[in-house]
């Protein structure tokens, strides 16, 4: 348990500003049920004997808690529970038992009359009420358990002495092992209500899988139908892929699948839960399907193998259902499916993609859909997003893992390294339609968003670009980067390509890529980003990008010092190397790429700033620098003869000068001679025979400012 209880877990229990607190009113029971499931999932993943603790045993608070459950996580004092402020020092256990029995109004059996038993209270509201006053539902079951029974119990357990009390008195209470078993007790009271009270609609056996991993938000998946979570619906953590059959239970971090000729068989793990109060019968079917990654998928056509043109777009995995064992009430079970993912070349050939293009060299990206056929289906349509929301026995995963140092790089261009993944967009329902393509940081995101640390680049296939152009090239928080490559860069959140109209059944590809910026790297190891297809403001599908960023040393692009040149001349610019293999790109002020390579020769007609882009080849991390090449408006073009003993001719060039003169100054010090210049002329003869021999600076002064200098030797 100490391994599971870390700062992120404890912070989920803290009160976050701006959201409905997890400790008040109707929110109390729903929050803690999902919160406890996180620990249960972890214990289950460890196997025997740890999975014997699932579901968690309850601690009756009127009994003495025994060692080792009196312990507090050693990290307690270092955990900062709040966005502001420091860690709480109350990391001790004090009394840790409570002599009062459960109040009669929270007990069974059912008694006649109001407030005599547990069944007198509704579980109200059944839908979340974000940002409502905490005292929304004083007659609800969650409120009656939370206040005063739960609060008084925790106060008593922490002791009645003056502050700082014990750890159970604070929001970092999850660092105490006893916290988890005490809240299992409160959750069991709710389960008794679900089992015995008329207000409950819970079936004795109800197998389900969780659509989303949300915990502390008002919207979270507890298995209701429809799900109170508004999505996205394609982020289930109850499906994950591993490339090794031996590590998928202990390591539940999702991997991209490999084609069998690349990496062997993949293994898909599906966790099924029983939210009922009786064990499930053995033999309930569990089906698993794949589809090519897309923001537009329909059921069942894209999953059952019926779409075979231009290529097979989906199929059932392992040829048929797996049959589940009996799952205990409140427990869960993980089933494993072997899977050989399709050859990516199939899709390159089907879409006539050039070898090595963005859209041909990505074998990894597929969607997964799991279905428990438990005899309790809700009505279904072709809308996968709606089906998943309506049914607790259907879950969907559409996640591309972008491992910055291990991902295949899209594009054949020598001047680019963009790490990302491609997905299909379009119409999956056969009726055509107009959609927006939305690129955004996830809602409720914890951590630094990727848009703060990376350049997000969207590349469209030629057909998708044409559709967007036909719709008027409408966009929001995006700029066109490379027209010839159909590329755009995200400049804000959310970003949109608007009014893209697809014909019936027409689909086209889009690639979302990430280049992290060297100067903005924070050390955060992972980021999430969403690509969503919307119709009339509602999501129909999407892709989650999970980007893994290994730690690395930063670097600085250095284009060298600014240059000063004469008109009609050239100068050499040179990038200082960064000490690793890199791409050096030079851009003009309009953003056009003018050369790839460390060195560049330019001949600007006017003063011009050039941008240097340096991209590390190993991971696509980049940095920028500017160098200015200034073209002289005024200059001394020649001094002949030089050295001189009598008269010399000084040639000059002036541009829109109101006044100008020459100053002849000995370098060793002393007085200077000044010679007024004709602003419309271009030369003047100077007689220097009266000047002592030596080395002099000849300075051109225009409009009161020195602008050029030549060294003159007088014999």
How would you explain this protein's 3D organization?
There is one protein chain. It contains eight helices and 35 strands. It is α+β, with helices and mostly antiparallel strands. The longest helix has 20 residues, at 177-196. The chain is elongated, with a radius of gyration of 35 Å.
Task: Please outline the helices and strands.
Elements: H1 7-13, H2 28-45, H3 141-158, H4 177-196, E1 207-208, E2 239-242, H5 260-263, E3 266-274, E4 285-292, E5 314-316, E6 322-323, E7 332-339, H6 345-350, E8 366-372, H7 384-390, E9 394-397, E10 399-403, E11 409-410, E12 418-426, E13 433-440, E14 454-460, H8 462-470, E15 474-476, E16 478-482, E17 487-490, E18 495-502, E19 507-516, E20 526-535, E21 538-548, E22 563-565, E23 571-574, E24 582-587, E25 593-596, E26 599-602, E27 608-616, E28 622-631, E29 635-640, E30 647-653, E31 660-666, E32 673-676, E33 683-687, E34 694-702, E35 705-714
Helix pairs in contact: 2-4
Briefly summarize what is shown.
With 715 residues, this protein is α+β, with helices and mostly antiparallel strands. It is built from 8 helices and 35 strands. Strands 10-21-20-13-18-15 form a 6-stranded mixed sheet. It has a 6-stranded antiparallel sheet with strand order 11-12-19-14-17-16. Strands 4, 5, 6, 8 and 9 form a 5-stranded antiparallel sheet that branches.
């Amino acid at each position: 348990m100490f391994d599971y209880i870390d700062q992120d877990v404890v912070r989920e229990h803290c009160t976050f500003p701006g959201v409905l607190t997890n400790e008040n009113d109707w929110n109390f029971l729903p929050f803690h049920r999902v919160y406890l499931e996180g620990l249960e999932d972890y214990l289950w993943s460890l196997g025997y004997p740890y999975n014997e603790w699932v579901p968690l045993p309850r601690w009756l608070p009127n009994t003495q808690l025994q060692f080792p459950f009196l312990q507090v996580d050693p990290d307690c004092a270092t955990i900062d529970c709040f966005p502001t402020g420091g860690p709480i020092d109350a990391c001790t256990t004090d009394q840790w038992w409570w002599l009062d029995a459960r109040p009669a109004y929270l007990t069974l059996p059912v008694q006649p009359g109001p407030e005599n038993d547990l069944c007198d209270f509704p579980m109200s509201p059944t839908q979340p009420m974000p940002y409502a006053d905490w005292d929304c539902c004083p007659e609800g079951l969650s409120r009656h358990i939370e206040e005063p029974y739960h609060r008084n119990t925790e106060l008593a357990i922490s002791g009645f002495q003056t502050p700082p009390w014990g750890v159970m008195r604070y929001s970092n209470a999850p660092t105490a092992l006893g916290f988890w078993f005490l809240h299992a007790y409160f959750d069991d009271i709710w389960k008794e209500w679900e089992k015995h009270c008329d207000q409950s609609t819970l079936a004795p056996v109800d197998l389900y899988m969780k659509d989303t991993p949300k915990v502390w938000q008002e919207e979270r998946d507890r298995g209701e139908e429809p799900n109170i979570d508004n999505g996205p619906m394609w982020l289930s953590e109850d499906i994950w892929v591993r490339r090794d059959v031996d590590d998928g239970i202990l390591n539940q971090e999702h991997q991209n699948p490999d084609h069998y000729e690349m990496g062997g068989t993949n293994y898909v793990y599906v966790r099924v839960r029983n939210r009922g109060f009786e064990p499930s019968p053995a033999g309930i079917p569990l089906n698993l399907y794949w589809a090519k990654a897309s923001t537009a998928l329909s059921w069942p056509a894209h999953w059952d193998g019926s779409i075979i043109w231009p290529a097979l777009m989906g199929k059932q995995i392992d040829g048929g259902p797996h049959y589940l064992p009996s799952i205990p009430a409140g427990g869960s079970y993980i089933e494993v499916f072997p899977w050989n993912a399709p050859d990516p070349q199939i899709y390159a050939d089907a879409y006539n993609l050039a070898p090595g293009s963005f859209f041909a060299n990505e074998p990894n990206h597929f969607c997964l859909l799991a279905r428990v056929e438990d005899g309790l289906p809700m009505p279904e349509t072709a809308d996968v997003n709606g089906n998943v929301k309506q049914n607790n026995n259907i879950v969907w995963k559409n996640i591309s893992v972008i491992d910055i140092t291990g991902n295949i790089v899209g594009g054949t261009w020598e001047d680019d390294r963009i790490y990302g993944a491609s997905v299909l967009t379009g119409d999956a329902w056969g009726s055509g339609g107009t959609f927006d393509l939305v690129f955004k940081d996830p809602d409720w995101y914890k951590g630094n968003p990727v848009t703060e640390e990376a350049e997000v680049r969207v590349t469209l296939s030629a057909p998708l670009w044409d559709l967007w152009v036909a719709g008027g090239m409408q966009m929001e928080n995006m700029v066109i980067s490379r027209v010839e490559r159909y590329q755009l860069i995200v400049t804000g959140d959310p970003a949109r390509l608007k009014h893209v109209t697809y014909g019936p059944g027409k689909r086209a590809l889009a690639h979302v890529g990430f280049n992290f910026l060297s100067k903005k790297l924070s050390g955060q190891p992972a980021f999430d980003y969403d690509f969503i297809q919307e119709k009339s403001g509602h999501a129909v599908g999407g892709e989650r990008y999970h980007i893994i960023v290994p730690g690395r040393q930063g670097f600085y692009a250095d284009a060298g010092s600014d240059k000063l040149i004469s008109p009609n001349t050239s100068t050499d610019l040179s990038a200082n190397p960064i000490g690793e293999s890199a791409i050096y790109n030079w851009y003009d002020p309009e953003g056009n790429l003018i050369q790839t390579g460390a060195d560049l020769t330019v001949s600007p007609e006017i003063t011009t700033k050039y941008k240097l882009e340096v991209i590390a080849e190993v991971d696509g991390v980049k940095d920028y620098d500017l160098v200015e090449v200034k073209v002289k408006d005024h200059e001394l073009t020649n001094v002949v003869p030089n050295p001189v003993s009598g008269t010399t001719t000084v040639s000059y060039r002036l541009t829109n000068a109101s006044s100008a003169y020459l100053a002849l100054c000995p370098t060793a010090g002393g007085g200077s001679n000044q010679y007024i210049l004709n602003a419309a002329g271009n030369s003047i003869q100077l007689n220097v025979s009266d000047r002592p021999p030596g080395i002099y600076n000849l300075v051109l002064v225009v409009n009161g400012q020195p602008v050029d200098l030549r060294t003159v030797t007088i014999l």
